[in-house]
C-alpha cells in the first residue's frame, strides 16, 4: 500500500529565446494514490484540501480517480482497476494553483501504461496530455500558457515516477532547438501533521506564492521588452483540452 508523501520542491524556469532568463522558486507537492487520498484531521484541512473539481472534466460528484478513468476511456485506455499515483498540490486556505499535475497510470498487474501531464495556465484553462510510458515523451504544445510564448512547437517530457527523489524535466522545442526548459526537483518527506505544519512556515501559502512568482517574472520579461503574444481567441471555447503524445 502506498502511503501519501510530501516533496519539498524547487521549480526552475529557464528561457533561452528570444532572451535568456532564469528564475526558481520553492514549494511543495503531494504524492498520493488516487484510491487512497489523504484523510486529514479537520484542524489540518485549511492547509491541505483536495478537490476533484480542480482537475479534469467530470460530473460534480465524481472523484478524482473517476475523472482520470473517464479521461483514459476517451483514449481507449482501460487500467482494469490498476493503481493511479499523482503528484499535485492541495488547496491551502481554499486556494490552489497546479501549473503541472502528473499522473502515473498502472494496469492491474502493476505495469505502467501511460502518464498524464495536466497543465493549468493562469487564465483558468487546463490541458491534459496523454503520454506513453516510455521516457522521454514528445507531445505538441496545445495550450497557451505564457503571454511570451505562442502555441507552437513541441514538449519533451521526462517524468519518471518519484521515489526518494523527484526529478521532472519539460522542455519546449522549436525548429530543433530548446526555447524553454522547466524542471521540478525535490526530496521525499513523510506526510504527517508535523511536516505539513513545518511547511506552512518554510513555504507559506505555497500555491499562491508560486502563482505570484510566475506573474512577477512576467513583469520582468515585459520590462525587458520581450514581445507579447496575444492569447488565441478560440481557446475561450474550451476550458479542458486533451492531447496524446508519443515516445521519442
Main sheet: strand order: 11-6-5-4-3-2-1-10-9-8-7-12
Count of β-strands: 12
User: Helix/strand/pairing class, anyone?
Assistant: alpha+beta
Beta fraction: 35-45%
Assembly state: single chain
- Shape, per Cα inertia axes: globular
Please report the number of helical segments.
Answer: 3
Give an overview in words.
The chain is α+β, with helices and mostly antiparallel strands. It has one domain (5-224). Helix content is 15%, strand content 37%. It is built from 3 helices and 12 strands. It has helices at residues 64-73, 193-202, 206-223, and strands spanning 5-15, 21-33, 84-88, 100-106, 112-120, 126-132, 137-140, 154-158, 165-174, 177-190, 240-244, 246-247. A 12-stranded mixed sheet has the order 11-6-5-4-3-2-1-10-9-8-7-12. It is globular. Residues 235-244 have low confidence and may be disordered.
Q: Which tags fit this structure?
A:
twelve-stranded mixed beta sheet; DUF1365; 248 residues; DUF1365 domain-containing protein; globular; alpha+beta
Tell me the layout of helices and strands.
Layout: E1 5-15, E2 21-33, H1 64-73, E3 84-88, E4 100-106, E5 112-120, E6 126-132, E7 137-140, E8 154-158, E9 165-174, E10 177-190, H2 193-202, H3 206-223, E11 240-244, E12 246-247
Parallel strand pairs: 6-11
Antiparallel strand pairs: 1-2, 1-10, 2-3, 3-4, 4-5, 5-6, 7-8, 7-12, 8-9, 9-10
